[in-house]
């Protein structure tokens, strides 16, 4: 689940899947498979697109489409979200399942991991029950060979009756065979020759339903599979059946009678709905095991010693959490150190261009108010956002993606599964929370990988408790000005990173606390279990990571920030330059907010700056400086020393700085995140609650801290 233009914002929020055919002869090829088996890498190699790939399960949240030509035919390849089964639970798994069932793809490629083929064959067998046009792609054969695993693909092909193609997705030389097999499969007309044999009562029940279904649907989709799903009584799938096969599908008298007869037969055999699902699952597992008996050859121990030793350290009870915290601190230190000078250089360049725009405005004799709105308002805010956001993102996102490529993120979810279980939530929330460090909107969209609606909502409502990239500039500036400024050089950046890590840990702690509070009040329920496969540690593709992070992540998020910075710049200029009774609107609003701000250890200027920073958190500090300096445009005094002098002259103390840090960490999400929450939940109520929860937490913490400090001062 990458932070991309398709995984954040409104583009990622479509719940349907529409195939974009250019003509009727286009062939549609679906790409299915378990999570983390290399589907997106294969998709990119075949289509030439740049769908984001990663080394952790459940990444593909959006369904990508790409076109390519094979044997003179135009093919549309659809990369579906990964799933372990067609008995779908999450929203994305349902979309993938419904497309395979009712989207009528001309061929289906089921991608498997060669190192755990037996588990992956479960999905293969279910897919073959839907369609006879299946090609099995056994990917990651190089990883399997490193572990001493060899797959006899020809033997497996003979057993299944479909092509089985070994591939190494990163090596494009292995993919033409897959492409040609799929192209030939689009012309196949023979029915599947391989079916799972279920227990006798189930087979008898199926024999009652299949003839009726065959007559009703014409075998599209496969009648045997439809019969299994009807007996399974999956409500979500029944709804899709009505949509795909007609409203009268289940209302037909013969259909009703056959279904009742089959259900009664199962009940007489002691098989209710739950037992039926268990039997189906057990049969699939047993069949997969049987298939792999002679197909998978173990030449030496499966598990690499290196991976085992790393997991002993990174996932241990003793070292797992300290390693996680130290790694986070190290990433933040690299981000702070690496982004400092590029940020200054970029700011100098952009503001030099502002001078050129001012000179041009003078030559054109533009009205002062027009120059103020366009140049000093809109352009200056945009330039500020770009210079502050771009360098840290250009450092942080590649570093974070390297961890993803190396396979560390599933270990993160494993380590945090226990705390989330204690909060009656799902361990997958850890992955969504980690994505929130880059962009909370991406974290909210990423919650689609969580199966349970209750747990998905918990993750959405609490994602904003961890700071996104937009809050880092304010946090870093305040830490550097008031707490790390006593140190010099390299030690200063280390201290700044350490303090920033502690603030982030506070945000994670609040995430746990609020998740628990919601799970015992508004969203009561027990935590669900989930299966998490730890992928092998892999050498990251550094060049690809850097390019993908810059163009697919950094520039997109920057574009989003620029888009909202334009109206924000206009509003800020109006607030600072339009007066009423000789006082600017900004000063009037600040005075109005002073009483509330005083209780929080802040002042009205700080609160109005946060309100004006609703489109983009990066402009909060510049708005504060602009108000203090009584200027009509965004200002920054220059050095940290000058900033500290200005803040102290306006009544700031270390207590004010701490309150500011707390409120920077906990306040309403930005406009893009709230829009994403509304699109995901389709509810104004939950969107409002998502804004209220961090804001209430921030106000309460600030009041408690300020009150405690004042009591202590009175006692002293």
What report would you give on this structure?
By secondary structure, the protein is an alpha/beta fold. The protein folds into three domains: 9-185, P-loop containing nucleotide triphosphate hydrolases (Rossmann fold), CATH 3.40.50; 200-271, no CATH class; 320-524 and 544-715, no CATH class. Helix content is 62%, strand content 7%. The chain has helices at 39-47, 91-102, 117-130, 141-146, 153-160, 176-185, 200-217, 223-232, 235-245, 253-268, 273-292, 305-314, 320-363, 368-406, 409-422, 429-436, 440-446, 453-462, 472-482, 489-519, 542-577, 585-599, 604-612, 620-628, 640-649, 654-665, 671-681, 684-715; strands at residues 27-33, 64-70, 73-79, 107-113, 134-139, 149-151, 164-166, 296-298, 579-580, 583-584. The strands form three sheets. Strands 2-3-1-4-5-7 form a six-stranded mixed sheet, sandwiched between helices. The protein has a two-stranded antiparallel sheet with strand order 6-8. Helix 18 (453-462) crosses helix 28 (684-715). The longest helix is centred in the middle third of the chain and has 44 residues, at 320-363.
Mean pLDDT: 80
Total domains, how many?
3
- Given the C-alpha coordinates, what overall shape results? elongated
Q: Count of helices?
A: 28
